[in-house]
Amino acid sequence: MKAGSNGGSRVTNIPECPIVDAIKNIGGEWNFIIIRYLNEKAMGFNELLKSVQGLNSKTLSRVLKNLQSAEIVDRTIVNTQPFLVQYSLTEKGRSLDPVFEALREWGTRWASTGMEVSGAK
Description:
Blueprint: H1 18-26, H2 29-40, E1 43-44, H3 45-51, H4 57-69, E2 73-80, E3 83-89, H5 91-94, H6 97-109
Antiparallel strand pairs: 1-3, 2-3
């Protein structure tokens, strides 16, 4: 399709894009935040829930299941009496460390200025 023939949009379809695939695999905002905490150490459900401000248990449960399905997070039963589960990053999840380091550097340089990316001037 020619540029501009779709209501002014230049790109109508990118057949294969590793960035899009990665974003689909990693997911949304909560996913990034959970991965960030688990990058520090393995944590239990309640520990994660207490650590991440504004996150509710239903959302945390959904995010953890999605990250497990994507093989980014591993769920391990540590003890059955009392029942204790711990979440940690898999090798695939730990391989995101350079990505998070780059985001940390970008955030330190640009996001900490108080201006939002969504067009703030």
